[in-house]
Write a structure and sequence with these properties.
Order of helices and strands: HHHHHHHEEEEHE
Number of domains: 2
Helix content: 55-70%
Structural class: alpha+beta
Radius of gyration: 37 Å
Strand order of the largest sheet: 1-2-3-4-5
Number of helices: 8
């Protein structure tokens, strides 16, 4: 190629590099502008000519815009990361995601684990009822699940009580005390009924329902209702 032809080609490349550099905030075009600009510089150096002003401008603009894009991206990432951490710390957001998780159906293995956990919780709640009655001057039972969770098992630390309370509140089962007659009277016996009913749709159909009363006996039925558990439930282990 003649000198004039090579010079014209180099000029065309320099103009191309300059146009590409204008749009360097699109990273692929910015990289292309820098590459084409450097090719123009190398060709001019090989021909013993001064570098093309448009090629130099393309390099300056390309590098500056790429640098600005990089800085902007880092700042945006930092803000996004900080915002995400803020959302993670936000109690309202955490409660929303926990509530969403609690509505997701469990697989068979997880549902079985929840059944075993519910049985364990029922036994612990029955034990707390007995302990509370022994230590109360009037010998009464608690009629609210919240009272049992606040009291906790005998000898339990505050952290242990909180952990047990969260275990009950986040369970795939709903725990309830009914038919509560806390004190022994002239015509009545002190009594309560404690039930654990699976939450739907989290637990599958035909999951165990647990029930217990002041006798300390824990029973269960599969499917059905808590009333069927009380009337016809089988002893749990």
């Amino acid at each position: 190629m003649s000198g004039d032809g090579r010079s014209a080609s180099n000029g065309a490349m320099a103009r191309t590099a300059l146009w590409l550099s204008v749009f360097a905030f699109f990273v692929p075009l910015g990289i292309a502008a820098v590459v084409v600009g450097h090719v123009c510089e190398k060709r001019a150096e090989a021909d013993g000519r001064d570098s093309d002003p448009m090629a130099r401008a393309a390099l300056w603009i390309g590098y500056l815009q790429l640098a600005l894009v990089s800085v902007t991206a880092m700042i945006a990432w930092g803000l996004f990361h900080e915002t995400a951490q803020g959302f993670q710390r936000d109690a309202v957001v955490q409660r929303f995601f926990r509530a969403s998780d609690q509505m997701q159906p469990l697989d068979a293995e997880s549902a079985q684990e929840e059944e075993e956990t519910a049985a364990s919780v029922i036994y612990q709640l029955v034990a707390i009822e007995d302990e509370m009655r022994r230590h109360r001057e009037d010998g009464s039972y608690a009629c609210q699940i919240e009272d049992l969770l606040e009291n906790g098992a005998e000898g339990a630390t505050d952290a242990g009580k909180r952990a047990f309370g969260m275990r009950v509140l986040r369970s795939a089962y709903m725990y309830r005390i009914s038919r509560c007659n806390p004190q022994h009277g002239a015509m009545t016996e002190a009594a309560y009924v404690l039930t654990a009913v699976p939450r739907t749709p989290r637990m599958p159909e035909n999951s165990m329902i647990f029930c217990a009363d002041q006798t300390g006996s824990v029973r269960y039925v599969r499917g059905g209702t808590s009333l069927e558990c009380l009337n016809n439930g089988q002893a749990f282990r």
